[in-house]
């Protein structure tokens, strides 16, 4: 029997899992329609993505990307300043591309979820009510008039691969859709505020940093219960709870 390549779990939870097996990524998704949209989004995106090797039912095989992740939440990123600026420029290129046919969730849907999650955090005494309310007030400023752009939808640093100063590709396009540009910029820099100037420099133009901070609060409030219930630790240093505590 041939030797089996070492398996690395990139992301795994009850709905989706991404594994690295040798020179390939295996994406397993309980929603095959979401895989369909992911492949289509990768074809439309004007940025480097992984090569689609094959697709069989709920499993999508992608070619491995050169290099390593841009970083991890809770750990300092060792990627160069130029790499972070390049990611900012890449985000701008994506946001200026023609819109895909799918839309992200509406502001009304997100607001309703925010209400539920804030109630859970306070009712279960996971976080102090004052801290939750302070972040909620900031988070609600994202509900404004905005022009939809082509967003990645989950533009976290573990989905961006870098080799030196070069960005070799972006993974996990299952949330690619029409959405708010600031959501991508905030997801990319969540827990890495020190890298925000570099991303903004690469992105160019007039970037409202307070809106990025508002999205940090929103994403952290929305994600905390899910992380707790799926075996992740949002209270780890540099992670979601620290992001929320930084809001004064």
Automatic annotation (TrEMBL):
SUPFAM superfamilies in UniProt? Protein kinase-like (PK-like)
Signal peptide location in the record? Answer: none
Q: Where are the transmembrane segments?
A: none
- Give the matching Pfam families: APH (PF01636)
Location of the Aminoglycoside phosphotransferase domain = 32-204
Matching InterPro entries, A to Z? AGP_Transferase, Aminoglycoside_PTrfase, Kinase-like_dom_sf
Query: Superkingdom of the source?
Result: Bacteria
Q: Which PANTHER family match?
A: AMINOGLYCOSIDE PHOSPHOTRANSFERASE DOMAIN-CONTAINING PROTEIN-RELATED (PTHR21310:SF40), AMINOGLYCOSIDE PHOSPHOTRANSFERASE-RELATED-RELATED (PTHR21310)
What is the name listed in the Swiss-Prot or TrEMBL entry for this protein? Phosphotransferase family protein
